Amino acid sequence: MRLFLDTDVILDVALQRQPHFISSSAVMDWAECNMGSVAVSWHGIANIQYLLKKSEPFIKELLRFVEIPPTGTVHLEYALSLNFSDLEDAMQVSSAVLFGAQIIVTRNVKHFKKSPIRVMTPEEVNSILPKQR
Domain with 37 in it: what CATH number? Predict the structure, then answer.
């Protein structure tokens, strides 16, 4: 299974935001055990750095087990063509498409109504993820 994590899921873990921490943390634990199966966007990392103080250790740890799809002009053009009301969300989708994600994991499902990729909350994804051995 290939997942793409929206920035809100990562921030739930980094900031231990309740009540979302447990479900988002479980997704991140799965990602750590399934290296190469989960991606985040380049600009999502920049947003995390902007919102967190002393974020470098967290970001370095994250990069041990997540992928960042290499995006460029054509991918931004694709994001613009999606006609999302929020360009940042469309950029997440474009990055997820490039990665070949099967599911975008986010708490803001309504922001991704136009996504060509299935969108699920962390709780929903946890119910279908293969159990860890």
Answer: 3.40.50.1010
CB 41 within 8 A of CB 97: no
Range of the domain at 83: 3-128
Distance CA 83, CA 103 (A): 20
Torsion angle of the four alpha carbons 83, 52, 106, 3, in this order, in degrees rounded to the nearest 10 = 100
| Assigned token pair, 133 | 């051995």
Q: Is 66 left (phi over 0), alpha (psi -120 to 50) or beta?
A: beta
Instruction: For the chain of 133 residues, list the mean pLDDT of each consecutive stretch of 10.
Output: 96 94 96 95 91 88 96 96 95 97 96 96 95 63
Q: Is residue 133 part of a domain?
A: no
Token match 């360009």: residue? Answer: 87
Domains contained in the chain, number: 1
